[in-house]
Amino acid sequence: MGFAQEMDERIRRALRAVRLPFRARLTARNDAPGLQLAQAEGLAGEQAQAVEILQQFGFCSGVPAGSDLIVLPLAGRTSAGVIIATENAACRLKVGPGEVRIYSQEGAYIHIKQGRIIEMDCDELAVTVKNNARLTAGQGVTISANGGIRLDTPQTTVTGNLTATGERGGQVEMTADMRLRGNIEQTGGIVSSGDHVAGGISLTGHKHTGVEPGGGNTGQPQ
User: Fold this and answer.
1) Which of 44, 65, 183, 211 is the most exposed place for a label (fewest CB within 10 A)?
2) Residue 26 burial (CB < 10 Å; 0-12/13-18/19+)?
3) What is the Cα–Cα distance from 167 to 13, expressed in whole angstroms?
4) Which residue ranges make up each domain of the chain?
């Protein structure tokens, strides 16, 4: 064997000893150390133990068992490998070109769609905003919607004060029966097409007793 052939053979042996990136299937996951460590089985039956799942900063997902993985052996050694990509075809949701979805194994999602549309689907939505020194009371959440806001729900509850300033509209209109508990303080007039009943006495249909001619006063309405 010549020198060149011997060198080629040595290079081939060295390359065979270097483990290239490979596909695997997640069998178990452990978050206890503060990192996501995965146990996986390669497509050729190779076992990968305590392999770290690397994710982008600001994003964390709990990869479910059965997901497909890409394992990158650092320095060519499987024991020093890291997982650089994960996928699960059973959970993946379809998106159009240029769209983004954040989704869970149960199917809850936030979908950023074409046309600058954001769609959300979930069983329960909880938003917590805490005021700090930069915010004054009432400035925790601001929603600006030029086309209006529509709440399609059988019940809406407000636990604190409710203020309508009329800055972008001069009236509040309701098409429903209203029931209030508590006192009402009114500034300005009231125009009504129906009757007013106070203390069981009708404004439009009550009678007065003690009616006398001249400048005398009548009795109380009844």
Assistant:
1) 183
2) buried
3) 78
4) 3-87, 93-129
**pTM for this one?**
0.72
At 40, is the pLDDT very low, low, confident or very high (cuts 50, 70, 90)?
Answer: very high
Q: How far is CA 45 from CA 10, 48, 69, 70, 216, in A?
A: 27, 10, 14, 14, 107
Question: Rounded to whole angstroms, how far apart are CA atoms 55 and 38?
Answer: 13
- Residue with the bigger pLDDT between 150 and 20: it is 150
Cα–Cα distances in angstroms (integers) from residue 175 to residues 43, 171, 172, 178, in the given order: 64, 13, 10, 9
Level-2 CATH architecture, domain 3-87: Beta Barrel (2.40)
Residue 221's DSSP bridge partners are 208
Query: Per-residue DSSP letters for 10-24?
Result: HHHHHHHHSPPPEEE
Tell me the two tokens of residue 130.
């805490």
Cα angle 41, 100, 112; round to 5:
150
The pair of three-digit structure tokens given for residue 59, joined into one six-digit string: 């994003």
